[in-house]
């Protein structure tokens, strides 16, 4: 896999831009309190100065018909030398419409921290193609602006990934997690937490390394735009997660068979799956993984870990695209062996 440019680390006092590449609800009156809460936490916990991009808070109705305005915000943030980082307000299902309006040269020539998850995958993939390592994790509204408090686990993982130049290291599991649906307009919501079972080895033995690439099931769509070339190269650790309301075990089966049909599965060094956000757990996801990868494609020795804390649960870690990582099957452990920033 091609080595990527790592962005400069963030420091207290830096300016960070907020953008709405997909859903524009951060600017809706009923949700604006949550945006303000997230901003206050970035400022108080990390010493950052938060700058909303010009269109990012104009609301869902305005932004859903204006992908060019959402893309303009992203380009403005990358091009501005005073902006040192960019965070997505929230995911959605519409970021793919930004692609025709984004200039990859602007991204390549202005490397900086970009972070978000879910439908933000399309922006990550475009940044990857432009040669920039970005970060899968932490949308502002979902991860940072939880009304029950700012998780110490999230704070630690954000600081390790974005503010420190030493290797990120072992990705441990939080003591508990919640997978309740977020009520964005409800400032009094109390989500139920469950004991975290920790990382689970599904198959494989020993240790392997590889470079991180992945996201969610939307990976099937950007192939048409030529944005998943790294999956056709050797040496990749695929990371994958999704939301159970959208992706059932049968959908995961289809995705894995798609990887197999594209001659991708057999090239992977290993796979790490996030926690599919349902409680109690639907074991159908595990069954499909083992059936397709192990039984149908005969890859019974491929290292696979399951139940990692990234994606559509809370709290979550941060994964840098292109970073060298390690799967330790014997100890059911996962580590990022590099820093995310320089």
Summarize the structure.
The chain is α/β, with parallel strands linked by helices and 342 residues long. It has helices at 32-46, 60-64, 67-79, 104-109, 121-129, 140-144, 152-163, 249-261, 284-296, and strands at 15-19, 49-52, 83-88, 113-116, 135-136, 169-170, 176-177, 194-195, 200-203, 207-215, 236-240, 270-274, 304-308, 319-320, 324-328, 333-336. The protein folds into 2 domains: 15-167, Murein tetrapeptidase LD-carboxypeptidase, N-terminal domain (Rossmann fold); 170-336, Glucose Oxidase, domain 1.
Give the CATH level 1 class of the largest domain: Alpha Beta
Find the CATH superfamily of the largest domain.
LD-carboxypeptidase A C-terminal domain-like
- Biggest β-sheet, characterized? 8 strands, mixed
Number of helices: 9
Q: Sketch the topology as an H/E string, one letter per element.
A: EHEHHEHEHEHHEEEEEEHEHEEEE
Can you name the CATH architecture of the largest domain?
3-Layer(bba) Sandwich
State the helical fraction: 25-40%
- Identify the quaternary structure here: single chain
**SS-based class:** alpha/beta
- Give the domain tally: 2
Q: For the largest beta sheet, what order do the strands appear in spatially?
A: 6-16-15-10-11-12-13-9
- How many strand elements? 16
If you consult CATH, what is the topology of the largest domain? Answer: Glucose Oxidase, domain 1
Shape verdict: globular
Mean pLDDT, as a whole number?
96
Cα separation of the termini: 20 Å
Radius of gyration: 19 Å
List the uncertain runs. Answer: none
Strand content: 15-25%
């Amino acid at each position: 896999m091609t080595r990527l440019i790592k962005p400069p680390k963030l420091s207290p006092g830096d300016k960070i831009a907020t953008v709405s590449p997909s859903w524009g609800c951060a600017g809706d009156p009923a949700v604006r309190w949550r945006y303000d809460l997230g901003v206050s936490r970035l400022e108080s916990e990390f010493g950052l100065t938060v700058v909303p991009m010009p269109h990012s808070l104009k609301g869902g109705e305005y932004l859903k018909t204006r992908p060019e305005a959402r893309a303009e915000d992203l380009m403005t943030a990358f091009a501005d030398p005073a902006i040192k980082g960019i965070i997505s307000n929230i995911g959605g299902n519409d970021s793919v419409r930004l692609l025709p309006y984004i200039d990859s040269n602007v991204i390549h020539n202005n490397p900086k921290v970009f972070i978000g998850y879910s439908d933000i995958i399309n922006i990550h993939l475009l940044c990857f193609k432009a040669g920039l390592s970005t970060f899968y994790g932490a949308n502002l509204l979902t991860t940072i602006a939880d009304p029950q408090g700012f998780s110490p686990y999230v704070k630690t993982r954000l600081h390790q990934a974005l503010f420190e130049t030493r290797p990120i290291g072992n990705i441990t599991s939080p003591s508990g997690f919640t997978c309740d649906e977020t009520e964005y307009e409800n400032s009094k919501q109390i989500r139920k937490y469950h004991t975290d079972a920790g990382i689970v080895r599904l198959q494989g033995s020993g240790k392997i390394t590889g470079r991180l690439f992945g996201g969610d099931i939307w990976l099937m769509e950007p192939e048409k735009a030529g944005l998943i070339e790294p999956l056709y190269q050797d040496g990749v650790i695929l990371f994958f997660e999704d939301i159970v309301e959208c992706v059932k075990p049968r959908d995961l089966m289809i995705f894995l068979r798609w990887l197999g049909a594209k001659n991708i599965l057999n090239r992977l060094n290993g796979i790490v799956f996030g926690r599919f956000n349902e409680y109690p757990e639907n074991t159908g996801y595990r069954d499909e993984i083992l059936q397709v990868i192990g039984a149908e494609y005969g890859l019974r020795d491929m290292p696979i870990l399951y139940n990692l804390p990234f994606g559509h649960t809370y709290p979550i870690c941060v994964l840098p695209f292109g970073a060298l990582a390690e799967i330790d099957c014997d100890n059911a452990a996962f580590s990022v062996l590099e820093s995310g920033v320089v």
